[in-house]
Design a protein that fits this description.
This protein is mostly helical. Helix content is 81%, strand content 0%. It is elongated, with a radius of gyration of 21 Å. 2% of the residues are buried.
Length: 95
């Protein structure tokens, strides 16, 4: 007799089967993660310096705007990463 967990896993596999990812695709995904982590870090470093300068000058409004810009930039970069990862998973990589 199957447990409720096993039955749930069977139903899940029927509705959304597990997709196998090749070693090459895994490498491409890891490379994308590394590349985009570097992009985010570079942007954080740049904006952190600008935020520090604005804060030191007493311009909290500008510092707040820069913090918001950093959040938007992170979201934009993450969205780009997600798009490229999906392309790799679907086999639509850009060469």
């Amino acid at each position: 007799m199957k447990s409720s967990y096993e039955l749930a896993m069977e139903r899940l596999n029927q509705t959304a089967p597990t997709v196998k990812i090749s070693a090459r695709a895994k490498e491409a995904l890891a490379e994308l993660d590394s590349k985009f982590a570097a992009k985010i870090a570079a942007r954080e470093i740049t904006l952190a310096a600008e935020i520090a300068t604005a804060t030191a000058a007493g311009d909290e409004e500008k510092a707040g705007e820069l913090r918001q810009q950093l959040v938007l930039d992170r979201k934009k970069i993450q969205a780009e990463l997600d798009t490229q990862k999906e392309e790799v998973r679907e086999g639509k990589t850009k060469n």
